[in-house]
């Protein structure tokens, strides 16, 4: 079987489809999966084990045989727990073939083959009866089918089906119940991920303000969940407007309904403010009494208990359709609407006749009407709203623009053409892809810019003199930013585009940014290392087969590649000084030959080297640079502050070294190579 995989080509800025062998998909899935993270989640594992033991005991006390159905067995972990707890038989269902195969091996290695039957099917395909997959219905239902939003991985339809066809009435369920909690907050930072704030530009005769079009102001945005490591959001970045409220819960031991519905709770704000965001998380009770509880509550909710770090379950940020001023003590209703797979929120002020209008809250799932939410993802909104960043671009444009400047901008969904126009460039053109221009026409219209900035829908290599009114470009600008970029250096597409429009550039052209540089630093992660670290045994069960599988998949293709992570969510400490390793000169065209560098970095701090972090810095104009990675490195401890809008590249070392002795620093040697033919950067590190 062949699979087609879409990948952005950094030399063309567009998606390309590659034919890959059957193994490719599977290795991708395993290498990037969260299985390792789940196996490292001690809190989760311990509580599942306790809950399973308690459920098996309850069934045994009733004098029944304990027959377990484990839907989505993965490594077989929960079934092995059940078998150890004395279950008579377990049906372990796993739809993903490589995992089902792994489960068979792991179950065998741990000596449970006679108690656990692994079935490689989707649970809705499983049959019950003398000739079926299961001899009889189960009386214990065990699953771990939850994502950060709880229901996003299809837990509800799976439970609905299982209760109808696969388990007995009155069965035990582990977990027994899940509860979703919410808290209403005001947060300029998080709100800036959904709204475009007005952009203020000081000009000679006053101030110009770019305002978002009204379509954008009232747009509900996109339905995809915004899941983040909320524990990395400092309390200074938001104000809680309500207490934590229980929104809804699901009892997994009873029939479950997956059809769309809504839940509504009454709220009284604890302080007045602007209601913008609903923060949400859930917990699961492993037993009916609620004594075995596993919670995703963030740090400010239970400040005394130790937080378990995990990446497979985080917290959700929901954006209200519009900002609402609320007063302390007033009566509000918060509604959570959900379909089978996702949840969204509405806030309503209580009115006397409210009860009769309850049904009105069940609104359709959010669909972006202004197109901005399709063009700009949440970090991109945050980036465009970052005033410090905008100021750097304004300052640099001011340095390079003249009244007779003919300016061309190349970047996806960028406000630079508007800034260039406000700052007095004579002629501004914006080179874009088609879908981008639809959105921009709304923004331009709202700001009377339709005739001021010319949108050119063309690929750079197809630019014609007529597009530019037969003028040569005197200022070429880019942020650079492209939506197809995954890794920091993929935005070097700007360099390729600049090369493609070379014949249209005036001999004295100014290119902004004039250059980019790649920076690198060796780090110790506080937690992120877990996603790549082998587990060995998990609650006493040997899961090394899984470790080996992940290692194999990582080696399949990706071993010499970095992966993108937003490091503001994943704290690390630097063990070396940051180093500039490569530079890319945008005043010249892309060279034919590779750009390579080799060297060594000294480990200056005590710690465990988990990997290298790489990021780009753009040199906009003389002494003005913006970093897409490190913003600041604090004190002797090496704590890092990362650009909150960008993902950085992380290259995990295959083995970790401990640096201990400061007087004799250990060195890490590296070789880094930029291939202009592919636009990719390959790297190798030796410890
Ligand atoms: N139970 C394991 C793994 C949980 S991950 C553990 O707790 O460590 C969830 C697994 O469920 C994935 O491997 C996924 O492929 C599988 N899965 C999800 N829905 C399923 C369904 N309806 N039927 C069968 N497998 C399913």
TrEMBL record:
EC class name: transferase
EC assignment: 2.1.1.321
Subcellular location, record wording: Cytoplasm; Nucleus
Spans traversing the lipid bilayer: none
Entries under CDD domains matching the protein: AdoMet_MTases
GO terms of biological process kind: cell differentiation; methylation
Occurrences of domain Protein arginine N-methyltransferase (ranges): 176-347, 514-680
Major localization listed first in the record, in broad terms: cytoplasm
Catalytic reaction(s) noted: L-arginyl-[protein] + S-adenosyl-L-methionine = N(omega)-methyl-L-arginyl-[protein] + S-adenosyl-L-homocysteine + H(+)
A Pfam family the protein falls into: PrmA
Molecular function GO terms recorded: histone methyltransferase activity; protein-arginine omega-N monomethyltransferase activity
Coiled coil: none
Lineage: superkingdom: Eukaryota
Keywords: Chromatin regulator, Cytoplasm, Differentiation, Methyltransferase, Nucleus, Repeat, S-adenosyl-L-methionine, Transcription, Transcription regulation, Transferase
Cellular-component GO terms for this entry: cytoplasm; nucleus
Entry-linked SUPFAM superfamilies: S-adenosyl-L-methionine-dependent methyltransferases (SSF53335)
Role: Arginine methyltransferase that can both catalyze the formation of omega-N monomethylarginine (MMA) and symmetrical dimethylarginine (sDMA), with a preference for the formation of MMA. Specifically mediates the symmetrical dimethylation of arginine residues in the small nuclear ribonucleoproteins Sm D1 (SNRPD1) and Sm D3 (SNRPD3); such methylation being required for the assembly and biogenesis of snRNP core particles. Specifically mediates the symmetric dimethylation of histone H4 'Arg-3' to form H4R3me2s.
UniProt xrefs under PANTHER family: PROTEIN ARGININE N-METHYLTRANSFERASE, PROTEIN ARGININE N-METHYLTRANSFERASE 7
Protein name stated in the entry: Protein arginine N-methyltransferase 7
Organism expressing this protein natively: Picathartes gymnocephalus
């Amino acid at each position: 079987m062949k699979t087609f995989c879409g990948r952005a080509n950094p030399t063309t800025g567009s998606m390309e489809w590659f034919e890959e062998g059957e193994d490719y998909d599977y290795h991708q899935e395993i290498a990037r999966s969260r299985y390792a993270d789940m196996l490292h989640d001690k809190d989760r594992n311990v509580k599942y084990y306790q809950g399973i033991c308690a459920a098996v005991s309850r069934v045994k006390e009733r004098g029944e045989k304990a027959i377990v159905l484990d839907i989505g067995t993965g490594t077989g972990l929960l079934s092995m727990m059940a078998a150890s707890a004395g279950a008579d038989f377990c049906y372990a269902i796993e739809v993903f073939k490589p995992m089902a195969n792994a489960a068979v091996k792991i179950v065998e290695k741990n000596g449970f083959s006679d108690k656990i039957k692994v079935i490689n099917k989707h649970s809705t395909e499983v049959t019950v009866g003398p000739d079926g997959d299961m001899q009889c219905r189960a009386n214990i239902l065990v699953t771990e089918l939850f994502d950060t939003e709880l229901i996003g991985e299809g837990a509800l339809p799976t439970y609905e089906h299982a209760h109808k066809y696969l388990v007995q009435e009155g069965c035990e369920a582990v977990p027994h119940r899940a509860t979703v909690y919410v808290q209403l907050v005001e947060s300029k930072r998080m709100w800036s991920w959904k709204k475009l704030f007005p952009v203020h530009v000081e000009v000679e005769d006053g101030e110009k303000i770019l305002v978002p079009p009204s379509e954008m102001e009232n747009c509900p945005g996109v339905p995809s969940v915004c899941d983040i490591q909320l524990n990395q959001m400092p309390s200074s970045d938001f104000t809680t407007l309500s207490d934590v409220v229980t929104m809804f819960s699901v009892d997994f031991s009873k029939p479950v309904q997956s059809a769309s519905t809504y839940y509504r709770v009454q709220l009284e704000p604890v302080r007045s403010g602007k209601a913008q965001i609903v923060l949400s998380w859930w917990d699961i009770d492993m037993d009916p009494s609620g004594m075995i509880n596993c919670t995703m509550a963030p740090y400010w909710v239970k400040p005394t208990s130790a937080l378990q770090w995990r990446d497979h379950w985080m917290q959700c940020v929901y954006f209200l359709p519009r900002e609402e001023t609320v007063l302390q003590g007033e009566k509000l209703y918060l509604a959570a609407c959900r379909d089978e797979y996702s949840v969204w929120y509405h806030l309503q002020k209580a009115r006397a006749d409210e009860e009769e209008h309850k049904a009105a809250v069940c609104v359709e799932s959010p669909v972006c009407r202004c197109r901005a939410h399709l063009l700009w993802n949440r970090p991109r909104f945050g980036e465009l709203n970052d005033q410090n960043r905008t100021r750097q671009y304004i300052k640099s444009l001011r340095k390079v623009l003249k009244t007779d400047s003919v300016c061309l901008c190349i970047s996806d969904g960028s406000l630079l053409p508007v800034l260039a126009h406000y700052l007095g460039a004579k002629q501004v053109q914006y080179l874009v892809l088609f879908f981008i221009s639809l959105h921009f026409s709304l923004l331009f219209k709202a700001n009377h810019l339709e005739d001021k900035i010319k949108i050119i829908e063309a690929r750079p290599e197809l630019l014609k003199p007529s597009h530019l009114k037969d003028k040569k470009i005197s200022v070429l600008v880019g942020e650079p930013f492209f939506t197809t970029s995954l890794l920091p250096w993929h935005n070097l597409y700007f360099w390729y585009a600049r090369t493609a429009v070379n014949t249209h550039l005036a001999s004295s052209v100014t290119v902004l940014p004039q250059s980019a540089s790649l920076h690198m630093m060796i780090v110790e992660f506080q937690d992120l290392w877990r996603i790549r670290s082998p587990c060995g045994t998990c609650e006493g069960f040997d899961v090394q087969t899984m470790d080996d599988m992940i290692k194999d998949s990582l080696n399949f293709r990706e071993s010499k590649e970095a992966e993108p992570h937003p490091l503001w969510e994943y704290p690390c400490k630097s063990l070396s000084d940051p180093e500039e390793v490569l530079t890319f000169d945008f005043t010249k065209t892309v060279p034919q030959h590779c750009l390579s560098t080799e060297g060594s970095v000294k480990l200056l701090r005590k710690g465990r080297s988990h990997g290298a972090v790489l990021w780009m810095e753009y040199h906009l104009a003389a002494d003005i640079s913006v970093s897409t990675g490190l913003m600041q490195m604090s004190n002797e401890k090496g704590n890092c502050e990362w650009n909150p809008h960008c993902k950085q590249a992380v290259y995990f070392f295959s083995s970790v070294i401990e640096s201990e002795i400061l007087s004799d620093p250990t060195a890490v040697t590296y070789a880094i190579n930029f291939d202009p033919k592919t636009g990719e950067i390959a790297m190798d590190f030796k410890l």
